[in-house]
Specification:
CATH class of the largest domain: Alpha Beta
Largest sheet: 7 strands, mixed
Number of helices: 9
Structural class: alpha/beta
CATH topology of the largest domain: Quinone Oxidoreductase, Chain A, domain 1
Order of helices and strands: EEEHEEEEEHHEHEHEHEHEEHEHE
Shape: globular
Radius of gyration: 19 Å
Number of strands: 16
CATH architecture of the largest domain: Alpha-Beta Complex
Length: 307
């Protein structure tokens, strides 16, 4: 039996619960892992709320929260290639296994070995934030000196996008709340505080001719307010709001395969994708970990240290 934290039905934080469950049995193209660290993401509470139930793998309640983790392979299902029992790995629980748990199953094609020199804590932050940031930058036609507005720069994905953009010698302006300023400015971002000033006016004053690219992490009305700042509406890319297409922009094209994970790990080893980890909680602190992300009160990345 293993301890896990999840939800017994769709809803808000009130449906969350701790429970014990037998170790999952890995199916075809799955690996069972002993979870060392699980990453916490906004997608986790959206899944709990039932807003994106197509990603839950159809598993019965109670369901375990979490989409990404790093740990050690305990067993393999059929047709697993390139991963062995005992390997230190990181990846996605794309089949609905959940990662806020002592053991879980990961999708083998979406799981990679952790390279020597990379900690499990850093590795656990890469499946969602790391690969998303790489995908975003790959979809921009970039030249040194180009201007990019990162709308919602303070979270795990936003800081990762900004760090990679700065490394490519782009001029990066980021929007966020006051609590996000320090981490953004530390990596070379010019910061616009939406709680203290008019974002549109401040950003336009910095780049009067309009931005070459806008990367949106906030969505909703925030996306709609900054989208006109782009020189070309086709150069607005959103990570979380598919309605960006109504504005003439694009939704990010995601790649979650092993090659993408390995690439993000190499960038992390090179210091180009160093996550800003602002909180590490034990499994017993999972409710507080998810609450800070759900409430938008945390900068950078939050993780749960299970073992």
């Amino acid at each position: 039996m293993g301890h896990a934290w999840g939800f017994g039905r769709y809803g808000g934080p009130e449906v969350q619960e701790f429970f014990d469950r037998p170790d999952p049995v890995p199916g075809r193209c799955e690996v069972l892992i002993q979870v060392d660290v699980a990453g916490v993401n906004p997608l986790d509470h959206l899944l709990r709320s039932g807003l994106v139930d197509g990603l839950d793998g159809g598993r019965p309640f109670p369901r375990v929260l979490g989409m990404e983790a790093a740990g050690t392979v305990l067993a393999r299902g059929e047709d697993v290639i390139g991963l062995e029992v005992g390997d230190a790995v990181f990846g996605f629980a794309l089949t609905g296994g959940g990662t806020y748990a002592e053991t879980t199953v990961l999708s083998a094609p979406n799981t990679a070995r952790i390279p020597a020199g990379l900690s499990t804590t850093v590795a656990a932050t890469l499946p969602v934030a790391g690969t998303t940031a790489v995908d975003v930058l790959d979809q921009l036609s970039l030249t040194p000196g180009a201007t990019i507005l990162v709308n919602g720069v303070g979270g795990g994905v936003g800081l990762a996008v900004a760090r990679l953009a700065v490394a490519r010698e782009l001029r990066v302006i980021g929007t966020g709340s006051t609590a996000k300023r320090e981490h953004a400015e530390a990596i070379g971002v010019r910061f616009v505080d939406y709680t203290a000033e008019n974002v549109t006016a401040a950003a336009r004053a910095m780049v009067p001719d309009g931005f070459d690219w806008i990367v949106d992490l906030a969505g909703g009305s925030s996306l709609r307010s900054v989208a006109p700042l782009a020189q070309d509406p086709r150069n607005v890319i959103s990570v979380g709001d598919i309605s960006v297409s109504d504005l003439g922009g694009r939704f990010v094209e995601r790649r979650t395969d092993r090659e993408s994970l390995e690439r993000s790990a190499r960038l992390a080893l090179d210091g180009l994708l160093a996550p800003v980890i602002t909180a590490v909680h034990p499994l017993s602190g999972a409710p507080a970990a998810l609450a800070t992300v759900e409430n938008g009160h945390t900068a950078g990345k939050v993780v749960i240290k299970v073992t």
